[in-house]
């Protein structure tokens, strides 16, 4: 993709003035602010209507800049080398001297850190003198945004600027892994757990529904298009939209296909766009076909299960 430097400079100038801007990443769009500034980070929470106790992911250009803020360990370095920049977020111990805003972290002594791969996000990060705090660019508890027009739909004029970056190529959020002790997945995401396991060569536990919530986004209703969802449906009810993994010959207007041939990566990329589309098309509920629970299909199922708690 061609980088428009004038747009990136506009975003940088606003971020320098402690304003929020929406930015593209390869997973989903984010609402970015200066991660060193309490004032700037507070604006994110206000815009998103996000509870203040839900900490933000901090986005960096590379390792060099992260070293001031976090203790790095062997597992982290292995995964960083193999997957970064890319759709993975690490939970690490924060250094005492770190200048990251306590508003962004909810005063935790840990930090969620990520190195986005999208060339627009990377160019912006390279130009900035600070890392950026950025949650997904959607109203709290709703479906994430994967295009600039999704962001506009959710925030309208409330957001000062949306940096254009085309459609997010992964389409679901980053995988979150806690690396402080034994590796533990806190959120399934764009990078498959099996792929991470191959590099770490050790057991990785998955704890995306803990009894004590360490990431507030983990349990409540989340990723909701704003209408009820039923899962593993064979037969739909009258007036429901039907969401299927694979295109079939039935060409009814209420049938929505996540992919042409049942490709799970393609399905993940399309998931949020189609959920938004069904809502816009005015359906009052969604029935979902069985989605294979393998690879990134696990992430799709995770999102749909949480959205079905609506
Ligand atoms: O792909 C992504 O990760 C996107 C793009 C914009 O980078 N960001 C994103 O952020 O999904 P958000 O805020 O929607 O989700 C971040 C999750 C939340 O569930 C939050 O609770 C958790 O990360 N989190 C943040 N800091 C944490 C920490 N120190 N310990 C545990 N969980 C943390
Ligand atoms: Mg989110």
N→C terminal distance? 37 Å
Strand pairing plus helix content: what structural class? alpha/beta
Low-pLDDT runs of 5+ residues are none
Instruction: Report the bound ligands by name, code or SMILES.
Output: threonylcarbamoyladenylate, magnesium ion
What is the alpha-carbon Rg in Å? 19 Å
**Topology order in helix (H) and strand (E) letters:** HEEHEHHEHEHEHEEHEEEEHEH
Mean pLDDT over all positions: 95
The tally of beta strands, per DSSP, is: 13
Sheet of most strands:
9 strands, mixed
**Basic shape:** globular
Fold blueprint:
Elements: H1 5-16, E1 21-23, E2 30-34, H2 38-48, E3 57-59, H3 63-66, H4 74-83, E4 88-93, H5 102-105, E5 110-114, H6 119-127, E6 132-133, H7 148-155, E7 175-178, E8 184-187, H8 193-200, E9 205-206, E10 229-230, E11 241-246, E12 255-259, H9 264-280, E13 286-288, H10 297-307
Parallel strand pairs: 3-5, 4-7, 8-9, 10-13, 11-12, 11-13
Antiparallel strand pairs: 1-2, 2-6, 3-6, 4-5, 7-8
The protein binds threonylcarbamoyladenylate (TXA) and magnesium ion.
Threonylcarbamoyladenylate (TXA) binds near residues 27, 30 and 55.
